[in-house]
């Protein structure tokens, strides 16, 4: 049991309890999956190409000797859309990026890595549109590894939707549907023998949480048929906010925080996907009382606040805000 063995013995239940506001123990949010979801893919539409050796040197010249033997190995990035559902079962079309390794012009794939993206604020930085900060996992393609990067709800084809930030059931559903689609694409378009295709599940930051959520779904809720496709041989979860309450408590003790938007995203997402957290209060009441910036008219539309967050980054993708006080008033911080 990969998930539980990765934790300190005896902490599993506490870990689950601390993954608050993520649909824990909520059987009403258990999904059914179509193992051959509808998707749209065009093999001739290559988003970008990278040579493995050149890409490695671009990241770090010191890696030149490590990748010297892979100068004929190339990466081709494609994007595709696929059918999934929202939390209420409403159909939705999601988008994803798929990186396929080639020897010359011949696809050569023996493994599939699901790379769960970190938190992304800029709408133009969706994985289906570009190489993300954690896309260098594609260098695993020296082991002939294809890489799947799902945009998830709130980016790419669903940029106008509220992000499913830390909503573990919904994130898992969106990703698993993407895995099933990618699995079929590799078989149908690239002649990949998927019988013994190895899978790796990885992610950093938000992706760290998402990779752990996917592993939790695999181990606790997936059917035997689903397991045959999802089954990861390894899971790497880095720097995820696995306990949102601890994240809030620690963040609000500081005057500065690298990304104050994280806190607003957590609040807004929780409101739309887990409204029971707020009781009788509305998100507008909460932000008017406690948020200094997100008050009318900015939140007059359901998705306006989250859309505003996506615009508040500089040219390097960094937050333009650092002060906790830019987002929350002193009463909220002290209480």
| Outline | globular
Unreliable residue stretches: 1-29, 294-302
Could you say which structural class the secondary elements and strand pairing correspond to? Answer: alpha/beta
Radius of gyration: 20 Å
Kindly report the average pLDDT value. Answer: 77
Number of E strands: 9
Strand content: 15-25%
**Level of helix content?**
25-40%
The H/E string reads: HHEEHEEEEEHEHHEHHHHH
Q: What is the overall number of helices?
A: 11
Cα distance spanning the termini: 40 Å
Question: Biggest β-sheet: count, sense, barrel?
Answer: 9 strands, mixed
Question: How does this model look, in words?
Answer:
The protein has helices at residues 2-5, 12-18, 52-59, 168-190, 206-220, 224-230, 244-251, 261-273, 283-290, 304-311, 330-334; strands at residues 39-41, 48-51, 73-85, 91-103, 106-107, 111-116, 145-150, 198-204, 234-238. The chain is an alpha/beta fold and 335 residues long. Strands 1, 2, 3, 4, 5, 6, 7, 8 and 9 form a 9-stranded mixed beta sheet that branches. β4 and β5 form a beta hairpin. Residues 1-29 and 294-302 have low confidence and may be disordered.
